[in-house]
Amino acid sequence: MNQTKKRILEVATKLSEDRAYPNITVAMIADELRISRTLIYHHYTNLNSVITAVLEAAIENNNETLMNQGRVNKHELFAAESICNC
Would you say the C-alpha torsion 83, 84, 85, 86 has a positive or negative sign? Predict the structure, then answer.
């Protein structure tokens, strides 16, 4: 993942800590990063794709934490992802 895309996700994640997803806009993310909205749309199709990427990263982080703590193994996570088509 390139640096700009990573920064977009970091800011969207930070904004989601303060407000609900429906209250986040591409303009807010762009303003926080001091970049154009066009640059965000270069990396993501729309706001929903940004939010989806934020949620996927959170799930991945949670899965890694669970594996590191020995609470689940990779095979169990794979089975769960196969069931829900995640």
Answer: negative
Q: Could you tell me which residue, 70 or 21, shows the higher pLDDT?
A: 21
From residue 86, how far is each of 3, 57, 62, 64, 75 by CA, in Å? 25, 12, 14, 15, 15
Q: What pTM does this model have?
A: 0.77
Residue 80 half-sphere exposure toward CB, CA atoms < 13 A: 9
* Dist. CA 26–CA 51, nearest whole Å: 10
- Supply the CATH number for residue 8's domain: 1.10.357.10
